[in-house]
Amino acid sequence: MARKIQAIRGMNDILPDQSSVWLYLEKTVADVVKSYGYQQIRFPIVENTELFKRGVGETTDIVEKEMYTFDDRNGESLTLRPEGTASCVRAADQAGLLFNQVQRLWYTGPMFRYERPQKGRYRQFHQIGVESFGMASADIDAELIALSAKLWKQLGLIEHVELQLNTIGLASEREAFKANLVEYLTEYKDQLDEDSQRRLTTNPLRILDSKDAKTQEILKNAPSLDDFIGEESRAHFDRLQAILTANNVPFVINNSLVRGLDYYGKTVFEWVTTHLGAQATICAGGRYDGLVEQLGGKATPAVGFAMGVERLILLLETLDLVPEVAKYQTDVFMISLGEEAELASTVLAEQIREANPDKVVLRHCGGGNFKNQMKKADRSGAAMTVIIGQDEVDQGICQVKQMRTGEQVSCSIDELPRYIASL
Question: Is the model's pTM score more than 0.90?
Fold first, then answer.
């Protein structure tokens, strides 16, 4: 017997009993972003490696350690996309959608990073991203955050998440802060965790994100980024806070929040939860005004965020917030006994679907005795079962059994689609 081929570690199947929750989440997101005027964009899974090296940053963990990169037959270096923002910028700029224009875009799809698989984090994972271009003022930052807050309300999560905000200022302000931070931390280099020692010369801002207790203790007396923020960045951040406050979107200031990608500047934010252990962040983003130009386009202000679908679904399931209507369930199960009844059942099922497009109608196919068919009707979770045998065909009727109560009534076959619609 041939050896069974298994899925690659960290790249999981989404099975039928799980996909209904995915569809629920995706539809909820699509409805919310549409209400804010955002349009969907789709772009390839594979991009030129240079896009992510230049966009995400060569010294980030993603580019240094996590990308799936390979040479194609022409020797061109290609990469499975590890995140969506750089691809969105590339696609929109290539199509001429950015310069001197305002765009509100969103996307969804798989991303790929080679890291240790764990609950809520996989090597193939899915993100939903929302990006806006051409607007430099704080009100669009606030709109994106309000949009995400609206989504949490729709999903029933708003009481279980916290918005954390920070400003990381302009590039010149960050460079001045980095120099002071590196000077301070160099004295304690041997006491820093391994990742922080490496980041001291590659990406020192990421040390602020360290989860190592000893490193965090050292950081308590380190220079503060807040001391290097200039008037322009401060005014932008103050305006953002004022708009969020006016719109009743609560937040906390987290001066250690810097985000892990090189393209961010000014506003950065994360939505975090205490219900997923170490995987606390469910949505994160910020402003990246320099990225379009960095990737070869003309200077364009931009801001956006991304959320992890697997992590969101894990949170919804942990809190038991997936509504019953979102789970796959059959509304009408149809049983037929005998060839004429089977034929009548196929015609009737189509009539029911035509008159009730919101109903899930499942026919038993392949024959079988009444007892076995009823067992399948029970397992389907159907609200009602329609039974047609030879006697029913002869009389032009069917039996309708309400599965929750056990009540059973006779109904004219001609009237059944309207009867179901009336329930």
Answer: no
